[in-house]
Amino acid sequence: MIPYGPVRPVTHEKWKSLVIRSTPKFRSLVLGLAAATLMPAMAWAQGATISYTEAQADRGEDAYAEHCEVCHGSTLSGSAETPPLVGTGFRNRFATGSPLALFSYAATAMPQQAPGSLTPETYADITAYLFSRNRIPAGDAELPFDLDVLGAATLPAQITP
After folding, report:
1. Rounded CA gap, 5 and 108, in Å?
2. What is the DSSP code string of 40-97?
3. How far apart are CA 83 and CA 146, in angstroms?
4. Where are the domains of the chain?
5. CB neighbours (10 Å) of residue 129?
6. Which of 31, 99, 132, 145 is the most buried if burial means most Cβ atoms within 10 Å?
7. pLDDT digit string, tens, across residues 83-110
8. Inter-residue contact 112 to 71 (CB < 8 Å)
């Protein structure tokens, strides 16, 4: 059975302990990377609606066929061992609120035989494809793969018929 649940992020306390025990050179690197990562996130207002493009969903469909279809099926309906990636249960779990939950789960646990092996762009494309198949409307901007931006944003509330 494939584990199917939320990914738990590293807590602030755990991250702080890792940084405190590290070398000054590493701490400088971490602080620089954190600042560079937060800059794009600050451009998004907390709760800003985020979208994906149809072109991104098309790339995601190709990536899904290559990396996901063997377990989840061509119709995304899953199997006895894998959960479906379409339908009410999936939408209730991943297609409301922030897109971070689905993106981070996929990026850390999928594909099952090689978790985390795809590029962040590919995970964003697959996430866009799953949103398109779950009737989340496409927009004018691609779904980003920056975790801070994804965490600060929300998906469109309206699901198209």
Report:
1. 11
2. HHHHSPTT-B----HHHHHHHHHHHHHHTHHHH-TTS---SSS--SSSHHHHHHHSSS
3. 26
4. 12-43, 54-152
5. 25
6. 99
7. 999 998 898 888 878 899 999 999 999 9
8. yes
- Rounded to two decimals, the pTM is 0.70
Three-point CA angle 99, 101, 103, nearest 5°: 70
Fold held by 54-152: Cytochrome Bc1 Complex; Chain D, domain 2 (1.10.760)
154: helix, coil or strand? strand
Where is 149: in which H helix or E strand? helix 147-152
Token duo for residue 151: 């965490």
Question: Using 50, 70 and 90 to split pLDDT, how confident is the model at 42?
Answer: very low
Token pair recorded at residue 94 = 């991943």
